[in-house]
Design brief:
The complex is a heterodimer.
Chain A lengths: L2 E12 L2 E13 L4 E5 L6 H8 L7 E6 L2 E2 L5 H11 E4 L11 H12 L3 H14 L15 H13 L5 E5 L7 H16 L3 E6 L2 H5 L3 E6 L2 E7 L1
Parallel strand pairs in A: 3-8, 3-9, 6-7, 7-8
Antiparallel strand pairs in A: 1-2, 1-4, 4-5, 9-10
Helix pairs in contact in A: 3-4, 3-5, 4-5, 5-6
Chain B lengths: L2 H14 L1 H38 L4 E6 L4 H6 L9 H10 L3 E16 L2 E10 L3 H5 L3 E4 L4 H5 L4 E4 L1 H8 L8 E4 L2 E9 L4 E2 L2 E2 L4 E4 H9 L6 E6 L5 H15 L6 E5 H44 L1 H9 L4 H41 L9 H28 L2 H5 L3
Classes of the chains: A alpha/beta, B alpha+beta.
Chain lengths: ~220, ~400
């Protein structure tokens, strides 16, 4: 079992009121699965992404990632876990504007402590995997939206993570490049990469093997196709 | 993690905001260049003053009459005759540390050569005065022992007296009228400059014996100057002279002993005061520069919150983020410090160059210690004031930071 959430709750304090963003959520995801998590805005999607991505800890319940209880990890261990096991893809790409595609992609390897040559070599390989071998020295503002998201995918892949966690990866793209990005992600999944897609787009979710529907902080539906 | 890579990245980040980075650096630049140029000016002034004091003679003690208040005058009335020629002779004969001694009799009187006249300060001294005061005779000769013994009417004059009274005439062998006596000029002193308001070139030296016999008519001294053989004997000599003088003056302390060391010490105290004031000012401007760095770094951290969030998502630990921003603020002060050194050295050298032309004896000095101190102080300021913004960046919650707009 790659991911196991057991009665995970997350509560945010907003002044006097506390808001329950996740309410005793439980589910499991196996290695190699392709899962979409869908739900309207405010349903707890983002909070779930933060928990799965080790960006924050659950308030209560257990989150086991490869059998490791994430809620017990220190901040430094969480950072290391994100670095080694999670590859993030964001709606807004989140590339560093001052740096080239190559440097952007090599960033996770920098925090993993690899030497410069290895970092750049692996980053170049990752960029050719996403079809950008001829764009490695371009800066984000010299690339189209679709190309920028490819750079971000290369960055997510570069450190061989257990999970690719994509948050509305096509949200900022036109439909054609959106399709291309989606195809690229599904191809990666076919090669065995675990893929978790967070979206409010039902059509996108249709293309995955499994869809988890979240509403008011609870999983209300779990469909396998 | 590679410091050089982070540093290069930091410099690139600074380059992305050139005006802002430049203005932030300005505080450090001004601070460091102030430390260096100010210390260079103070040190130049110090070296010149100390050199001049030493040119006026070293290991000197001067004994002068002390002005007494009314009460003491009544109390000691008639018990002491004040400073006399005999005092000087006694000290010379009884204190073993005395290498040279000269009595000094000063008086203002009218001087005349041909149709030119002016008033001037005449000093009655002995031949030992030359060595005590480090006088060099430019032309002719200095006063001799024989001049004093035979009450000769001879005079050695300074260059300013020569130019005022003799003009282009060669003064050697000419008659100079001092008061109502005629003296023969036997020597001209080499130019020496002035110190603490005394012009050493506007001087007329005559034998002390002649001065007492013909000009003042008594054996009262204005002072006598003792050159002590060794520096470490200064205090012993001081104490011994004091003891002998007290005995001879019947327990009345109507004299004061001052040492050249005291003058040096006073000068050094003044220099020290200057250094503290100027150093403090420079340090203050560095502090202000540091606050500027903190201010800008806080803005930078806020602006780059999303970037920090992303770096954390990709696996940057708190330490890595702290380090990154600390290096950025250090880079600001490092660059500022280096530019400040260039400016400071240029300012100090430039001022020294000007001062050398305006003031004789000034030397331009750049203190390596000030350069190093200024630079390290700047670095410390950068790190200290960068610490809080960097800490703030490191503490950001990754999930919140990532979605910061």
């Amino acid at each position: 079992m790659l991911i196991a959430l057991k009665e995970v709750s997350k509560t945010y304090k907003m002044g006097e009121v506390s808001v329950k963003a996740l309410d005793q959520t439980s589910f499991m995801i196996d290695k190699g699965e392709c899962v979409a998590i869908v739900g309207p805005s405010g349903s707890g999607k983002t909070t779930l992404l933060d928990i799965i991505g080790c960006l924050s800890r659950p308030t209560s319940g257990d989150y086991l990632l490869q059998g490791q209880a994430v809620q017990d990890l220190s901040d430094a261990e969480l950072a290391r876990t994100r670095n080694k096991k999670i590859g993030f893809i964001f709606q807004t790409f989140h590339l560093l504007g001052r740096n080239t595609a190559l440097v952007n992609v090599s960033l996770p390897l920098f925090y993993a402590g690899h030497a410069r040559e290895e970092r750049l070599g692996r980053a170049e390989t990752a960029l050719s995997t996403v079809g950008l071998a001829d764009r490695i020295h371009h800066r984000p503002n010299q690339l189209s939206g679709g190309q920028q998201q490819r750079v971000a995918i290369a960055r997510a892949l570069v450190n061989d993570p257990e999970i690719i966690l994509a948050d509305e990866p096509t949200g900022n793209l036109d439909s054609k490049s959106g399709q291309e990005i989606m195809k690229l992600l599904l191809d990666l999944n076919k090669k065995g990469q675990t893929l978790i897609l967070i979206t409010h787009d039902r059509d996108l979710a249709e293309r995955t093997e499994r869809t988890l529907t979240i509403k008011d902080g609870r999983i209300v539906d779990d469909i396998r196709r | 993690m590679n410091i050089i890579e982070i540093f290069v990245d930091a410099i690139r980040n600074l380059g992305a905001n050139k005006l802002r980075s430049g203005l932030t650096m300005l505080g450090v630049i001004i601070g460091v260049s102030a430390v260096i140029s100010m210390s260079s000016i103070v040190e130049g002034g110090k070296q010149m003053t100390v050199e001049m004091i030493e040119k006026m003679g070293t290991n000197l003690l001067s004994v002068r009459p002390k002005r007494m208040d009314k009460e003491d005058l009544l109390k000691f009335s008639g018990r002491s005759k004040g400073l006399r020629y005999g005092d000087a002779e006694l000290i010379k004969a009884s204190v073993p540390y005395v290498e040279q001694l000269t009595p000094v009799i000063n008086f203002q009187t009218q001087l005349r050569y041909g149709d030119k006249d002016r008033s001037g300060m005449v000093e009655g001294v002995l031949e030992s005065y030359r060595e005590i005061r480090n006088y060099d005779v430019g032309r002719g000769r200095f006063l001799s022992e024989e001049d004093a013994k035979k009450f000769k009417k001879v005079a050695v004059v300074g260059t300013e007296v020569v130019s005022d009274l003799f003009g282009k005439v060669d003064p050697l062998g000419k008659d100079l009228q001092i008061g109502n006596q005629r003296f023969v000029v036997i020597g001209v002193l080499q130019e020496k400059g002035s110190l603490h308001g005394i012009n050493y070139d506007d001087t007329i030296l005559v034998p002390a014996t002649t001065a007492m016999k013909l000009l003042t008519g008594n054996d009262t001294l204005n002072s006598f100057i003792v050159k002590v053989d060794q520096r470490h004997n200064m205090q012993k000599a001081d104490r011994m002279i004091h003891e002998l003088m007290m005995k001879r003056h019947d327990g009345v302390e109507d004299f004061a002993i001052r040492s050249q060391d005291e003058l040096l010490r006073n000068t050094e105290l003044i220099i020290f005061t200057f250094r503290v004031i100027l150093g403090g000012t420079a340090a203050l401007s560095l502090l202000v520069g540091g606050i500027g760095i903190m201010n800008i770094m806080l803005v930078t951290v806020t602006e780059r919150t999303a970037e920090i969030g992303l770096r954390k998502a990709l696996g940057a630990s708190r330490r890595a983020i702290l380090f990154q921003f600390l290096i950025e603020s250090t880079a600001i002060s490092l660059l500022g410090g280096l530019i400040g050194i260039l400016f400071g050295v240029a300012l100090g050298t430039g001022f020294g160059w000007l001062a050398q032309r305006a003031i004789t004896g000034w030397t331009a000095v750049i203190l390596p210690s000030a350069v190093i101190l200024g630079f390290f102080f700047a670095m410390t300021v950068g790190m200290t004031f960068g610490l809080y913004p960097a800490y703030k960046a490191a503490q950001l919650d990754p999930a919140e930071a990532l979605r910061y707009q």
